[in-house]
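Try this one yourself first.
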């Protein structure tokens, strides 16, 4: 079972929540961050993307950038844009997209649970990105952005969340510029706090990293580092826990994560189609974008036309938690075997497009001549993600895309 504890959050006053909070650091580049923060002195982007306040072109991982983040965070605290609650609490965080709302519990996850496998992952991390978040956390001594966790739904936890939502005034309730709604309730009743902590400790066998593998790995490393530097370490210190939002699995939806490829590996379109038909049943759809409707079905855009592709029986293994994934089928049978792309992490011939951008983005990038072919994917399910994490396997790169993204700055956890 897992340990999820309350903590005394650092957060903005009600009237500044929408203004201060921002998208996660890793869904934008420097220019986009600067544009989002323009004219908004209290935006948390001045902390999470502090290079926007440094010399243009500066190394994002250099000491002056981290120092500027510390300076800007201290300014936010001094100005009262951020304030720390006076007692450990949980927080309920709701996100609304397209009329659908998901409710998560903001709490402190245990570094020990990550080390012993009770916090389960489904992706590999890149050392450079992990190191960057670790250095920033070391400088700030806070978890400035939450990670996105899931757990197998527990009716008793659902009932507590529903009661808080129905009977408590929200602390924050706003719609961000992207149209997604964000609502947060404070759980300050001691009995309710104790009950939530007890239910996680007795009813939740494992939690799952949905989004934020690098931040999770960095938090665990920071916990080890701070423990090693503390002669009196006893395991109860704040640095042994990091901030996560815990959503029940039955409320989450993974959206498609699509692929675009720059060239056909020296093949003509006719040669490519002939090779493709060896592993896929191919049906021409026409000009209208085709979104896959079921597992083992793909959309493809090539030379101004959309196609429905269906993996031929015998080209995949439904008994294998990795082999059943459509990203595995496409990678092995088409991207590698036909197009010669055998390393999705390093190849410069392939790019990945989150489904939030729509299928029109795939078509645009091919029609522009930038890319030669695009593939629309059927989304992975939460059940598949959990099965892979439980089995200790790792998903292929760029498999899952969760939306909406967690808003940074609604709650921050001190270390």
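Now uncover the answer:
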């Amino acid at each position: 079972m897992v340990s999820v504890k309350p903590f005394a959050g650092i957060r903005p006053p009600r009237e500044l929540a929408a203004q201060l909070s921002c998208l996660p650091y890793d869904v934008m580049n420097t220019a986009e961050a600067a544009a989002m923060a323009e004219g908004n002195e209290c935006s948390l982007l001045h902390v999470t993307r502090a290079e926007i306040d440094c010399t243009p072109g500066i190394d994002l991982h250099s000491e002056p950038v981290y120092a500027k983040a510390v300076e800007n965070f201290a300014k936010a605290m001094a100005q009262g844009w951020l304030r720390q609650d006076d007692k450990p609490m949980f927080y309920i965080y709701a996100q609304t997209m397209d009329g659908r709302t998901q409710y998560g519990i903001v709490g402190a996850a245990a570094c020990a649970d990550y080390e012993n496998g009770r916090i389960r992952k489904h992706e590999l991390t890149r050392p450079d990105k992990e190191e960057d978040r670790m250095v920033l956390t070391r400088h700030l001594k806070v978890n400035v952005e939450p990670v996105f966790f899931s757990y197998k739904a527990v009716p008793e936890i659902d009932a507590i969340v529903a009661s808080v939502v129905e009977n408590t005034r929200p602390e924050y309730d706003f719609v961000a510029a992207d149209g997604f709604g964000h609502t947060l309730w404070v759980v300050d009743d001691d009995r309710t706090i104790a009950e939530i902590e007890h239910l996680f400790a007795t009813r939740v066998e494992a939690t799952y990293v949905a989004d934020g593998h690098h931040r999770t790995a960095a938090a665990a490393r920071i916990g080890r580092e701070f423990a090693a530097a503390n002669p009196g370490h006893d395991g109860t210190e704040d640095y042994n826990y990091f901030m996560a939002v815990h959503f029940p699995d039955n409320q989450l939806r993974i959206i498609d994560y699509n692929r675009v490829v720059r060239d056909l590996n020296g093949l003509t379109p006719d040669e490519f189609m002939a090779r493709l038909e060896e592993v896929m049943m191919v049906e021409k759809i026409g000009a209208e974008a085709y979104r896959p409707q079921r597992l083992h079905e793909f959309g493809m855009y090539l030379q101004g036309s959309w196609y429905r592709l269906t993996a031929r029986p015998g080209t995949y293994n439904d008994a294998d938690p990795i082999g059943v994934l459509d990203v595995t089928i496409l990678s092995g049978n088409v991207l590698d075997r036909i197009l010669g792309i055998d390393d999705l992490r390093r190849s410069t011939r392939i790019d990945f497009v989150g489904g939030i951008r729509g299928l029109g983005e795939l078509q645009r990038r091919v029609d522009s001549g930038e890319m030669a072919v695009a593939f629309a994917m059927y989304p992975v399910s939460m059940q598949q993600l959990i099965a892979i994490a439980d089995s200790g396997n790792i998903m292929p790169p760029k498999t899952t895309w969760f939306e909406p993204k967690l808003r940074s700055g609604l709650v921050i956890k001190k270390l």
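Discussion: Residues 4-253+403-414 form one domain. The first strand starts at residue 4 and ends at 5.
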